[in-house]
Amino acid sequence: MTDLPPDLLRLRTLETFLMLLLDEVREAIKAREQREREEQYGRAHRPPPPDWLLEMGLNRDSAPVQVHVGGCWNRGKRTRGISRAEARQAIVEGIRPCGACRPDSALGLLD
What we know:
Elements: H1 8-44, E1 52-55, E2 66-69, E3 79-82, H2 84-92, E4 96-97, H3 103-106
Parallel strand pairs: 2-4
Antiparallel strand pairs: 1-2, 1-3
């Protein structure tokens, strides 16, 4: 056992301090458990990623730059999900297919 103070006043002070500290620890545990429940809920209810992506230009007036398969590692930051039909139409209209994920092959446009 550790060396505790010999007098009652200091022992009571120490007890009060430890009770306050324990309350803080319990509140921190409760807050962390709540955050973990929220994160788990978010992971469980996250919508599925899109199957096809359209990479947009640098500003909102720019034309789209490339079409990607949904999980492409080479996609840019400015992408939005599109349908299979929209991806097919974009490539047919001249928007460049990504050279890494080859959406033109996945869409059957090269066959």
